Amino acid sequence: MWKTILRRILIMVPEVIILSILVFLLAKAMPGDPFTGSINPKADPAQLHHLMKLNGLYDPWYQQYWHWVVHLFHGNLGQSYQYQEPVTRLIAGRATNTLWLTGFSMILTYALALPMGVFAGRHEGKLPDTVIRVYTYVTYCIPFFVILVLGIWIFGYVFGWFPTTGSISTNATTWLQTIGSRFYHILLPAILGALFGTVNIVQYLRSEVIDAKRSDYVRTARAKGVPRKDIYRHHIFRNSLLPIAAFAGYSITGLLNGSIFTETVFSYPGMGLLFVNSISYRDYTVITALVLIYGILNLLGTLLSDIILTLVDPRIRIE
C-alpha cells in the first residue's frame, strides 16, 4: 500500500506543476492591475507604470512564473499588494480560522448524517424515512448561498441568537473567553454548512443500508437468531460505511471549497473571504497562492479517500 501511496504522490507532482502554470496565467489574464485606485484615485499614470515595472509586471509571463517558482521553493509566496505583508504570513493567519470552521462543520456533518442515514434505511418506506428523504430533497434543491442567507437572516437578525460577522469578540480577553467566543461565532455557519453537507452522505448511507438488509449474510444472521440491534451494529452499519469512508476525503475538500461562500456571507476572516477580496483587488500573489493551495488540498483529498477506504476494509487494496 505504501508503494502505491508514494506512486500516487509522484503522479501528483506534474499535476501540481500544470495547475500552477494555469493558475498563474489565469491570474495574469485578469483585467486591471493591483495599483489603480489603491494609492490615490487621482494618481499620476507615470507613478502607476513605475510601480508596475518595479514589481516586474511588465516582464514576459514565463519570466514572472520562473521568479515565482524560485521564490516558492524558498518558502516565499511573495508580497500582498493589498495588505502589504508576506503572503505566507497572511494566509497562515487566515488558515487558522478556516480550519476551525471546516473542522467543526465536518464533525457536525457526520454526527448528523450517520444516524439519519441509518435511521432512514432501517425504516424504509415509513414516516421517518419519508421525512428524512423530503429533507434531503429540499436541501439539495436549494442553493447553498440561499441557505446561508436565510440562516443569517432568521437566526442572526430576526432572533438574534448568533453573531453575523467576525470570528471573535473584541471583549474576549482570557483564553477561555477567546475559545468560547470563537466557538460562538462559528456555530451558526458550521450548522448551516453541516445541514447542506449531510445530503449526499444521508442518501448514500440510506441506499447502502437498504441493500445490506437484503443481502445473504444478513439473512443468515437473522436465521441464526442474532438480535436485530447486533445485526445493524456489526453487519449492516459496518459494511454500509465503506462508500461513506471513500467519500470522506472529498467531503473535507468540499467543505474547504464551500467555505468561500460561507466566509463571504458571514464576513468571516478566513481563506475563503481572503480569496474573494484578493480577486476584487487584483492581488495576484494571494490569488495564485490560494488557488494552488486549494488545488493541492483537492488532490490530497482524493488520496486520503483511498487511504481511508483501505484502512476501513482490509480486503481492499489500492492497485
TrEMBL record:
Coiled coil: none
Cell location: Cell membrane
Gene Ontology BP terms: transmembrane transport
Domain of life: Bacteria
UniProt cross-references to Pfam families, sorted A to Z: BPD_transp_1, BPD_transp_1_N
Main subcellular location of this protein, as a coarse class: membrane
Keywords: Cell membrane, Membrane, Transmembrane, Transmembrane helix, Transport
Membrane topology: Multi-pass membrane protein
GO cellular component assignments: plasma membrane
Family: Belongs to the binding-protein-dependent transport system permease family.
PANTHER family: DIPEPTIDE TRANSPORT SYSTEM PERMEASE PROTEIN DPPB-RELATED
Protein known as: ABC-type dipeptide oligopeptide nickel transport system, permease component
